[in-house]
Amino acid sequence: MMIDHWPLFGLRVRTPRLELRLPAENELAELADVAAAGVHEPGRRPFLTPWTDGTPADRARQVVQGHWSALGRWTPQDWTLQLVAFLDGRPVGAQATRAGDFAALREASSWSWLGLAHQGRGLGTQMRAAALHLLFAGLGATDVTSASFLDNPAPLAISGRLGYRPDGITRDLLHGRVVVSQRLRLTRDDWERVDRPPVTIEGLEPCLPLFGIGSEVTPAPPPGR
């Protein structure tokens, strides 16, 4: 079975409303349809990812190729995990985490997207909470970083609720114009102090070598300690 060769297919991260896992091929196609229907309002550009520069078909292909690329380029020293968020068994978006030299640094970054039809329902917070629990409680991370445009309040609000602190800015070019992002950092200590949704993990232990670590992960305290 594929799970014998790639145990990440058995990884499950669950919140009260969502299940995050790798998709089957037909589920990946459905996720691509979610992206094709829109990730943000027309006329806005809240991400560096060019979601609106092409056609809906372009967005769908980008999701499929990104998923395949992340799996194909995976090494224990440099990995990107793109889990799909399922609500009532249907994909609604994706939550990604990335790290280089994680075994030594114990630091990762995260980003996500949610289909436009599913926004404003608290799902983004649960997706991020799931990723943070996997990184801190499951993999023993010490720091997780994120970044959002200064004029994109939704992800900044999620970060604030989950305990992130400002960590400087980044400047990028977007269609020839300079855009500024707020960098954010969440330490394990701050994560442990904040109230957060309950999260469970299934199937992680066989995956640990793929993340470059062994089974000596320090357990985290329960939410809202």
From TrEMBL:
<keyword id="KW-0808">Transferase</keyword>
<feature type="domain" description="N-acetyltransferase">
    <location>
        <begin position="18"/>
        <end position="185"/>
    </location>
</feature>
<keyword id="KW-0012">Acyltransferase</keyword>
<dbReference type="InterPro" id="IPR051908">
    <property type="entry name" value="Ribosomal_N-acetyltransferase"/>
</dbReference>
<dbReference type="Pfam" id="PF13302">
    <property type="entry name" value="Acetyltransf_3"/>
</dbReference>
<dbReference type="InterPro" id="IPR016181">
    <property type="entry name" value="Acyl_CoA_acyltransferase"/>
</dbReference>
<dbReference type="InterPro" id="IPR000182">
    <property type="entry name" value="GNAT_dom"/>
</dbReference>
<dbReference type="GO" id="GO:0016746">
    <property type="term" value="F:acyltransferase activity"/>
</dbReference>
<protein>
    <submittedName>
        <fullName>GNAT family N-acetyltransferase</fullName>
        <ecNumber>2.3.-.-</ecNumber>
    </submittedName>
</protein>
